[in-house]
Design goal:
179 residues, Helicase, Ruva Protein, domain 3
Amino acid sequence: MTRFFDPPTISMVRPGTVSFIQKLAGSNAFKAMFKEGMALVEEAAAYLDGPGREESRQLRRPAALAYATESMRLTTRLMQIASWLLLQRAVNEGEMTLAQAATDKHRVRLSRQDIACAADIFEELPDRLRELSLKSLRLQARVMHLDRCLFARDDGVTISPSPIASQVERLRAAFQTAM
Protein backbone atom coordinates (compact mmCIF):
# COMPACT_ATOMS: atom_id res chain seq x y z
CA MET A 1 0.00 0.00 0.00
CA THR A 2 1.37 3.42 -0.94
CA ARG A 3 1.51 5.90 1.89
CA PHE A 4 1.89 9.48 0.70
CA PHE A 5 3.44 10.70 3.93
CA ASP A 6 6.51 8.47 3.78
CA PRO A 7 9.76 10.09 2.70
CA PRO A 8 10.62 9.38 -0.93
CA THR A 9 13.44 7.14 -2.02
CA ILE A 10 14.71 7.26 -5.56
CA SER A 11 13.98 4.18 -7.64
CA MET A 12 17.11 2.12 -8.02
CA VAL A 13 18.03 0.98 -11.52
CA ARG A 14 20.83 -1.45 -12.28
CA PRO A 15 23.93 0.19 -13.77
CA GLY A 16 23.78 0.17 -17.55
CA THR A 17 20.00 0.00 -17.72
CA VAL A 18 17.79 2.85 -18.76
CA SER A 19 14.99 3.96 -16.48
CA PHE A 20 11.88 4.19 -18.64
CA ILE A 21 10.14 6.54 -16.22
CA GLN A 22 13.13 8.92 -16.10
CA LYS A 23 13.22 8.94 -19.91
CA LEU A 24 9.49 9.65 -19.97
CA ALA A 25 9.90 12.49 -17.47
CA GLY A 26 12.46 14.10 -19.78
CA SER A 27 10.64 13.46 -23.05
CA ASN A 28 8.42 15.47 -25.36
CA ALA A 29 5.46 13.95 -23.49
CA PHE A 30 6.66 15.74 -20.36
CA LYS A 31 7.12 18.97 -22.30
CA ALA A 32 3.53 18.68 -23.51
CA MET A 33 2.34 18.04 -19.94
CA PHE A 34 4.34 21.05 -18.76
CA LYS A 35 2.75 23.30 -21.39
CA GLU A 36 -0.69 21.93 -20.56
CA GLY A 37 -0.17 22.56 -16.85
CA MET A 38 1.09 26.10 -17.25
CA ALA A 39 -1.68 26.92 -19.72
CA LEU A 40 -4.24 25.58 -17.25
CA VAL A 41 -2.81 27.79 -14.50
CA GLU A 42 -3.12 30.83 -16.76
CA GLU A 43 -6.65 29.85 -17.88
CA ALA A 44 -7.83 29.41 -14.31
CA ALA A 45 -6.29 32.69 -13.15
CA ALA A 46 -7.87 34.60 -16.03
CA TYR A 47 -11.26 33.01 -15.38
CA LEU A 48 -11.25 33.43 -11.59
CA ASP A 49 -10.08 37.07 -11.81
CA GLY A 50 -12.50 37.94 -14.60
CA PRO A 51 -15.70 36.23 -15.68
CA GLY A 52 -15.68 33.90 -12.67
CA ARG A 53 -16.13 36.76 -10.22
CA GLU A 54 -19.21 37.97 -12.03
CA GLU A 55 -20.66 34.48 -12.38
CA SER A 56 -20.12 33.76 -8.68
CA ARG A 57 -22.21 36.80 -7.71
CA GLN A 58 -25.20 35.36 -9.54
CA LEU A 59 -25.23 32.05 -7.66
CA ARG A 60 -27.60 31.17 -4.84
CA ARG A 61 -25.97 30.97 -1.39
CA PRO A 62 -25.10 27.21 -1.23
CA ALA A 63 -23.65 27.30 -4.75
CA ALA A 64 -21.77 30.54 -3.99
CA LEU A 65 -20.15 28.86 -0.98
CA ALA A 66 -19.30 25.83 -3.14
CA TYR A 67 -17.86 28.19 -5.76
CA ALA A 68 -15.58 29.81 -3.18
CA THR A 69 -14.45 26.43 -1.87
CA GLU A 70 -13.89 24.93 -5.29
CA SER A 71 -12.01 27.96 -6.59
CA MET A 72 -9.64 27.79 -3.58
CA ARG A 73 -9.14 24.06 -4.07
CA LEU A 74 -8.55 24.59 -7.80
CA THR A 75 -5.94 27.25 -7.09
CA THR A 76 -4.18 25.07 -4.52
CA ARG A 77 -4.24 22.05 -6.83
CA LEU A 78 -2.82 24.05 -9.73
CA MET A 79 -0.07 25.60 -7.60
CA GLN A 80 1.03 22.13 -6.46
CA ILE A 81 1.01 20.90 -10.05
CA ALA A 82 2.92 23.95 -11.32
CA SER A 83 5.52 23.63 -8.55
CA TRP A 84 6.04 19.95 -9.35
CA LEU A 85 6.30 20.62 -13.09
CA LEU A 86 8.83 23.42 -12.56
CA LEU A 87 10.91 21.21 -10.26
CA GLN A 88 10.89 18.37 -12.78
CA ARG A 89 11.83 20.77 -15.57
CA ALA A 90 14.83 21.89 -13.46
CA VAL A 91 15.87 18.22 -13.19
CA ASN A 92 15.41 17.70 -16.94
CA GLU A 93 17.51 20.76 -17.74
CA GLY A 94 20.33 19.69 -15.42
CA GLU A 95 19.84 22.49 -12.91
CA MET A 96 19.49 19.87 -10.18
CA THR A 97 19.68 16.12 -9.85
CA LEU A 98 16.77 13.80 -9.22
CA ALA A 99 18.28 13.10 -5.80
CA GLN A 100 18.26 16.83 -4.98
CA ALA A 101 14.66 17.10 -6.14
CA ALA A 102 13.76 14.26 -3.77
CA THR A 103 15.08 16.03 -0.68
CA ASP A 104 12.70 17.55 1.84
CA LYS A 105 14.04 20.99 0.95
CA HIS A 106 12.87 20.75 -2.67
CA ARG A 107 10.20 18.06 -2.66
CA VAL A 108 6.69 19.12 -3.68
CA ARG A 109 4.09 17.36 -1.55
CA LEU A 110 1.23 16.47 -3.84
CA SER A 111 -2.09 15.84 -2.16
CA ARG A 112 -5.17 14.53 -3.90
CA GLN A 113 -8.02 17.03 -3.78
CA ASP A 114 -11.30 15.77 -5.11
CA ILE A 115 -14.37 17.92 -5.68
CA ALA A 116 -15.47 19.07 -2.22
CA CYS A 117 -19.18 19.62 -2.79
CA ALA A 118 -22.09 17.29 -3.50
CA ALA A 119 -22.74 16.41 -7.14
CA ASP A 120 -26.00 18.39 -7.30
CA ILE A 121 -24.30 21.55 -5.98
CA PHE A 122 -21.32 20.98 -8.31
CA GLU A 123 -23.76 20.95 -11.23
CA GLU A 124 -24.96 24.43 -10.18
CA LEU A 125 -21.48 25.89 -10.50
CA PRO A 126 -20.58 27.77 -13.68
CA ASP A 127 -19.62 25.49 -16.56
CA ARG A 128 -16.17 27.04 -16.88
CA LEU A 129 -15.28 26.44 -13.21
CA ARG A 130 -16.44 22.83 -13.46
CA GLU A 131 -14.44 22.34 -16.64
CA LEU A 132 -11.29 23.81 -15.10
CA SER A 133 -11.73 21.72 -11.95
CA LEU A 134 -12.15 18.48 -13.88
CA LYS A 135 -9.19 19.26 -16.17
CA SER A 136 -7.02 20.00 -13.14
CA LEU A 137 -8.05 16.72 -11.48
CA ARG A 138 -7.07 14.74 -14.59
CA LEU A 139 -3.72 16.54 -14.80
CA GLN A 140 -3.16 16.06 -11.08
CA ALA A 141 -3.72 12.30 -11.41
CA ARG A 142 -1.13 12.12 -14.22
CA VAL A 143 1.41 14.18 -12.26
CA MET A 144 0.88 12.12 -9.10
CA HIS A 145 1.36 8.90 -11.08
CA LEU A 146 4.61 10.17 -12.57
CA ASP A 147 5.74 11.37 -9.13
CA ARG A 148 5.05 7.96 -7.57
CA CYS A 149 7.03 6.28 -10.36
CA LEU A 150 9.98 8.66 -10.11
CA PHE A 151 10.14 8.69 -6.33
CA ALA A 152 9.12 5.18 -5.31
CA ARG A 153 8.09 5.06 -1.68
CA ASP A 154 9.44 2.42 0.63
CA ASP A 155 6.19 0.80 1.69
CA GLY A 156 7.64 -2.46 2.99
CA VAL A 157 6.80 -4.42 -0.16
CA THR A 158 9.65 -6.55 -1.39
CA ILE A 159 9.84 -7.11 -5.12
CA SER A 160 11.11 -10.56 -5.97
CA PRO A 161 13.82 -10.76 -8.60
CA SER A 162 12.82 -11.57 -12.14
CA PRO A 163 12.85 -15.31 -12.91
CA ILE A 164 14.53 -14.51 -16.21
CA ALA A 165 17.26 -12.53 -14.48
CA SER A 166 17.99 -15.46 -12.17
CA GLN A 167 18.23 -17.81 -15.17
CA VAL A 168 20.61 -15.43 -16.94
CA GLU A 169 22.76 -15.27 -13.80
CA ARG A 170 22.85 -19.07 -13.61
CA LEU A 171 23.91 -19.26 -17.27
CA ARG A 172 26.58 -16.60 -16.72
CA ALA A 173 27.94 -18.50 -13.70
CA ALA A 174 27.97 -21.78 -15.65
CA PHE A 175 29.91 -20.25 -18.55
CA GLN A 176 32.38 -18.56 -16.21
CA THR A 177 33.21 -21.84 -14.43
CA ALA A 178 33.54 -23.66 -17.80
CA MET A 179 36.25 -21.28 -18.98
